[in-house]
Amino acid sequence: MTSSTFLNRHLGMRHLLIPGILILAGCTQTLKLSRDDSHIVLSHQLITAPNPGEPGAFAVKTLYYGSGTDKRRAEFRDSVAIRTKTVDASPFVAMTPAIAKDREQEWGFGVNKSPINGRVWYPAGDGPFPLVLIVHGNHDMLDYSDPGYAYLGELLASRGFILVSVDENFINGNLRGESDGRAWLLLKHLEDWKRWNDSAGNPFYHKVDMSNIALMGHSRGGEAVGIAASFNRLTHYPDDANVKFNFNFGIKSVFAIAPVDGQYKPAGVPTPIENVNYVVIHGSHDGDVSSFSGLRAYQRVKFTDGKPWFKSAWYVYRANHGQWNSVWGNHDNGPRSGRSLDLRGLISPEEQRQFSKVVIGAFLEATLHGRQEYLPMFRDYRDVGAWLPKTMYITRFQESGFQPLATYEEDVDVTTGSVPGVTISGDSLATWKEAPLSLRDNATDLLNSQAVTLGWNNHIRGADTTKLGKPASYTLALSDSLSAALGTSSNSALYLSLAPTDARPGPRAPARDTTKKADSASKAPGKKPGAKPAADTTPVDLTVEITDANGVQLRTPLSAFGVLRRPLDVHILRRADEEQQRFPNQFELVLQTYVIPLSELVRGSPAFDATHLRSIRLVFDRLMVGTVVVDDIGVSSKIAPFVKLGEP
Amino acid sequence: MPFIRRAVLSAVFGTALTALAAPVCLFAQTRSYAPLILRLPASARHLSMGNVGIASRDDDVLFYNPAQLVTARGTSVSLEQFSSTAHSGALSSVARVGNGGIAVGATLAEFESADLYYPLNRATMLGRGVNNGTSANLVLGIGQVFKGTNLGIAAKYVDENFANIRHGQGALDLGVSRSFFGTAFGLAVQNIGATFDPRDATVPMPWGSAPIPVSSTPLPLRTTLGASRATQAGPFDIYGTAAASLLRNDFFAPAGGVEIGYSWLDGYDILLRAGARRPEHGEGPMTAGVGFAMDRISIDYAVEALSGSRFAHRIGLRVK
Questions:
Q1: Residue B309 near chain A (CB below 8 Å)
Q2: Quick one: pLDDT at residue A6?
Q3: Do A27 and B263 touch (CB under 8 A)?
Q4: What is the Cα–Cα distance from B177 to B100, expressed in whole angstroms?
Q5: Model pLDDT for residues A73-121, shown as the tens digit of each residue
Q6: Distance (Å) from the C-alpha of residue A335 to the closest C-alpha of chain B?
Q7: Closest CA to A146 of A70, A210, A209
């Protein structure tokens, strides 16, 4: 009997076969990625310093320190070069008695006897070397996470840093709200390091530069490093003042890798982070922390002491959560998450780690070694196209010289700026509204930042679709007193953060001719029901126009200072229905920061008086229809270290 | 707790092996109970695992242990063909009530038999004959949590028609269940009730047919203690269950089964099942089945060995 005859005869199975195959094969959505432009955007390399992602000149040594009694971790039991005392983390790490009992059985110790375990990569040399601590986040507690940063340890030690990968696996697993415990443990590690640096006979005696410390953390560890920077300055634990702090370490830099945010809130408020250099990175295809939560922490970083700090955020297209750690890999939700996560769009682990090596290396070189030549890449990543893996990036940036003109946080009056003396006006805008930004995970998951949405359509409604009106514009006018107070010069820079959206306002109404009756022919053509407009692929651009007190104008396309892209498609799940159910948006609206050095504009117009800015105007004359979200318009007079002459 | 996991899996396989090794000669001890419907399987998934459902989380656990209604969800229907003239079906649905669940369900069997003995059993219901019969069971169950322990009760009304016999009456199931270290344990006492006595409810036989002698028979009281546990092994989801039942006449019936699931895409699963039981009269020792789950919908198929190298087939559809 042939197989088809067999099927025909048995229960009509031939008819079931085709839908069966469709059910089995047709369940995964097609791979959807935004068109890659990295071959153009990353085609320049303007910074000539050595690649910070490449090994340096130091020979690398390693050792372990720890309790020496660890039941599960042989390296922290049998191989420790320095024995450490356990600490009582119970005020910070809450758990039920049943969980505590289980964990004590599993680990051989309770959280009240938490070990101070670390694996160290350090340069062979006299030092003193800056100290960098990195801490993992939550993961299967028995799939130990701390070895996963060895690639950073090798790199950074060879470049003259001491890197410690901190073991906090014993508080991984089924705990919540323990990020403060992760942070406090980091600070307890620093206490030991300070003691070793002061103790003759210790391998690190006088080898550690305790005034140059960086904290790095991944996932929950990424939140913990911000908390640690905050705790470092406090005298008491905010949630129990009976617990006293006395840290005050020289933490200069904080680096957060795909962090969560808000799992711990000191005294019920978001963790304040002040007066440190701060970088946060996040992958668009993060299958665990699936929205850019670290942007909230970025927004909260404040510079209040007048010292030269900066902060930067990097959104890395097609990067995920786990590949920053070589143990975690690409299954962001556990070994079985390949069933739900679409892994096809990810960049390779090597590319993802190359990115972190470059950005972490440059950040630490710039902030702990004082290598200022790396600073411009945080203002404009296009300066280092040869170093970065070929994918797309969106970056935020701000340094401590930033003076806000319009951040949209202060009131509900759309015509006022963030400081007295700023008057805002719009001309021919189809959309002009201020609203909170939200993260893609949930429309109600706010970024704690207001922004303005500006939409325009320069076409005049009517039969003649080529008829254009005056370009729409949005203007910040500065008063004389404010202009003088800003203290700008040709060495200053103009800031704005902006993201185009896919919204397309309809054509504007024609100017009313009062001598004629209303003409029905000029009405907008009827909208075809159900017709879905094709995706707009026209490049987005606009003109930035600044005017001085004498009325001299300078104009530049914004695209000269950064890439303008419509939202990048983000599909992390294999099933389209689950994706749409879980995420209101199939993109994350991340604003790109554009920093426009006035020196670049003034070079061809010596008559322009950069000391007296009168207005900043966005003119929507390069794209006839579009919508952008704009935030953080301001100026800075301290931008010089971040400027590399010769824009890409 | 690896040692507990090992212990539970050992218990599951041990029970299954005991079931296979048990002497088949004890069949006869289990034949004289009525009504028949209380001795038939009521779930395709459970049937394929030795007809063990004592610690299940499916809605048709209503027919096995009402205490598990606390965790059970869904609606299901299943049909079984024992022979060309003998069929049964089951329908059940659970709804959430407070911190527990309430369920309603029904099972129905139709059959023929030439047998002149009553009550029928699983062997005598399979043949062709002049006497038609139906046996039905309507159940309302509720499960609630009390101090961390699930307690359940199910009230049943059973009715059987066969030849000149027509009788119905009530019965009760009681159940208790609790999880320890990730393993669900259940204990159920089923078919508590008065003797099934149709002597006052006979009807006249058609002209020329001989009436069947009627006698009272006890309900098939069954006390079952069992457990289930789910675990993972590489890409597979493993579910094991085992139970030991004690029937009214001290017949001891261990049974157990294993389900191996594989998912290649979130929400889609293929499931293979196998089970073994110490057979009661008319049953064979082996059961098996397959399932396919697509999000909240699953389709199950089970086959059970019957005595005399015969097989019965059951299909089920479940919506969770």
A1: no
A2: 44
A3: no
A4: 12
A5: 999 999 999 999 999 999 999 999 999 999 999 999 999 999 999 999 9
A6: 9
A7: A70
Question: What is the distance in angstroms between the Cα of B266 and the nearest Cα belonging to chain A?
Answer: 5
CB pairs under 8 A between A and B: 21
> Least CA distance to A341: which residue of chain B?
B266
Closest CA to A325 of A385, A381, A377, A281: A281
Phi-psi category of residue A528: left, alpha or beta, with phi > 0 → left and psi -120 to 50 → alpha: beta
Query: Residue A488: what residue type?
Result: T
Q: Is the dihedral of CA B119, B124, B130, B134 positive or negative?
A: positive
pLDDT score recorded for residue A528: 52
Question: Do the chains contact at B266 and A23, CB–CB below 8 Å?
Answer: no
pLDDT digits (tens, 9 = 90+) for A255-307: 999 999 999 999 999 999 999 999 999 999 999 999 999 999 999 999 999 99
- Shortest alpha-carbon distance between residue A326 and chain B (Å): 21
A575 with B264: Cβ contact below 8 A? no
> What stretch of H or E contains A185?
helix A179-198
The pLDDT, as a whole number, for residue B24 is 46
- Which of A566, A560, A550, A542 lies closest to A601, judged by CA? A560
- Residue from A617, A326, A352 nearest A494 by CA: A617
Task: Tell me A509's DSSP state.
Answer: P
A165, A145 Cβ separation under 8 angstroms? no
- Taking CB atoms within 8 Å and a gap of at least 24, the contacts of A46-49 are A46/A376, A46/A382, A46/A383, A46/A384, A46/A644, A46/A646, A46/A648, A47/A373, A47/A374, A47/A376, A47/A377, A47/A383, A47/A384, A47/A644, A48/A373, A49/A371, A49/A373, A49/A374
Q: Which of A297, A611, A630, A314 is nearest to A454 (CA)?
A: A630
Tell me, what's the ipTM? 0.72
Among candidate residues B214, B160, B152, B216, the one with its CA nearest the CA of residue B189: B152
* Each residue's pLDDT tens digit, A381-391: 999 999 999 99
The residues pairing with B76 across neighbouring beta strands, listed in sequence order, are: B92, B318
Beta bridge partners of A209: A130
Rounded to whole angstroms, the Cα distance separating A316 from A149 reads 19
A25 contact B CB<8A? no
Confirm if A59 and A123 have CB atoms less than 8 A apart.
yes
Nearest CA in chain B to A106: B1
Residue A489: how many CB atoms within 10 A of its CB?
13
> Which of A27, A336, A573 faces B268 most closely, judged by CB atoms?
A27
Nearest-Cα distance to chain A for B287, in Å, is 23
| Chain B neighbors of A332, CB-CB under 8 A | none
Question: What is the pLDDT, as a whole number, of residue B28?
Answer: 42
If DSSP codes are grouped into helix, strand and coil, which group holds residue A57? coil
Residue B1 — pLDDT band, cuts 50, 70, 90? very low
CA dist A189 → A60, A130, A196, A597 (Å): 21, 15, 11, 42
Judged by CB atoms within 8 Å, which residues 544-573 of A form the interface with B? 573
Give me the torsion for CA of A460, A461, A463, A467, rounded to 10°. Answer: 10
Per-residue pLDDT tens over the stretch B173-189: 999 999 998 899 999 99
Is the Cα dihedral A440, A442, A443, A444 positive or negative?
A: negative
Cα separation, A456 vs A472, in Å, equals 6
E strands, B51-130, are 74-81, 87-97, 100-113
Query: Is pLDDT above 60 for B26?
Result: no
Q: What is the mean pLDDT of residues A32-54?
A: 95
Substitution target in B3, B179, B266 with the highest count of A β-carbons within 10 Å is B266
CB B232 to CB A336 under 8 A?
Answer: yes
How confident is the model over B3-13, as a mean pLDDT?
A: 54
Encode A92-130: b = buried (16+ Cβ within 10 Å), e = exposed: bbebeeeebebbeeebebbbebbbbbbbbbbbeeebbbb
